[in-house]
């Protein structure tokens, strides 16, 4: 899935984050959803292909 870049300002500093989305409209929809109820749920310590890997809780997502 394509990655989109989101810029935001916090105080005097500017930051960016990556947002995975199908297309530009999907990215904008996901950004609106983030503003309504996103929460920090963990810290990313590694990235990579996770096909066939088990996730925490066995939910099938990685």
Helices and strands in order, then pairings?
Layout lengths: L2 E8 L2 E8 L3 H14 L25
Antiparallel strand pairs: 1-2
Helix content: 10-25%
Helix/strand structural class? alpha+beta
Question: What is the string of SSEs from the N terminus onward?
Answer: EEH
Alpha carbon gyration radius:
14 Å
How many DSSP H or I helices?
Answer: 1
Task: Tell me the strand order in the biggest sheet.
Answer: 1-2
Total number of β-strand segments? 2
* Unreliable stretches: none
End-to-end gap: 15 Å
3D shape: globular
Average residue pLDDT? 85
Largest sheet: 2 strands, antiparallel
In terms of DSSP E residues, the strand content is: 25-35%
Describe the structure in your own words:
The protein is α+β, with helices and mostly antiparallel strands. Helix content is 23%, strand content 26%. It is built from 1 helix and 2 strands. Strands 1-2 form a two-stranded antiparallel ribbon. It is globular. The model has no long low-confidence stretch (mean pLDDT 85).
Please sum up the structure shown:
The chain is of the alpha+beta class and 62 residues long.
What characteristics describe this protein?
single chain; 1 helix; 62 residues; globular; alpha+beta
């Amino acid at each position: 899935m394509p990655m989109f870049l989101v810029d935001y300002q916090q105080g005097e500093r500017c930051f960016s984050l990556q947002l995975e989305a199908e297309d530009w409209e999907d990215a904008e929809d996901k950004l609106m959803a983030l503003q309504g109820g996103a929460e920090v749920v963990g810290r990313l310590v590694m990235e990579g292909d996770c096909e066939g890997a088990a996730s925490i809780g066995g939910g099938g997502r990685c």
